[in-house]
Amino acid sequence: MKPSSGHWNGLSDKSPASPLTSPTPPGTSGRENASSVRPLPISIIIPTLNEATTIEACLGQFDCGSGGSSWVDGRIDPDERREPGSSGGADGPDEPDGPGKTGSLEIIVVDGGSDDGTPEIVRSCSGARLIEPGTRGRSVQMNAGAAASSGDVLLFLHADTRLPVRWRAGVTESVRGRGMAGGRFRFDIAHAGRIYRWIARGTNFRSRFLGITYGDQAIYATRKTFEAVGGFPEIPVFEDALFADRLKQAGGLDWIDEAVLTSARRWERRGPVRTLLLTWLLRLLYTLFVPPRFLARFYGVVR
To answer: pTM value?
Structure first.
């Protein structure tokens, strides 16, 4: 079923998953195969601010939701995106090891002061851990989540984004198989409109060939690299792009050719063309050293 809007009513008109296209480089046969070793401990860090309409579906993809089925009212069927025989990833079944953990997967939601009931929804979801740092700002929240996490790899996920089925196998192969410091996924939008297909293609071209990457591509990094680069710069906009640039300099920014699926709400708010032009303009001004705090006045808050 194709969606008629950017909210969680269905999949886009192209499959969000395709085979990984980056083979293991020659000479790495001695490295551990992702499917034959203990699961890679991964912490999923989700910054939120008034995400009552999206957070339950987001947590549901890791079996952390309080229920829900299909794609109705922002809910998803957890079985739709779960690997066969897995309790939350591609590495096989595991027993939870504590609050906010599903086997070797740790789910941390960092709320920036929501007043729409988001924290209450997170508390009602089994397997998710809520952190309330008392400071609003996506970069601050993600750094707080990283500081409280225990995984060897940190994956930063927007609350309106759904990971592909094989996301965990892809991250494991990227880090263990190819020895990358971090990476991002191919991008797609949950809307069947042609303009959104073109936006997705443009985003993937920009990221893969121009190296400009934003947080809606689910950026991940090893803990060692995250700490080495100083985490996310605490600026109000483009903190994700600057963090991705730091990862490239620190040891490479990998590309996983399976798509994350993101809500179209950001483009629907102002209209897709207007939003796209505004993003390009702000990026140009950022490149010309216009202060991020000034740019944030025009960016708005759509999380």
So the answer is: 0.78
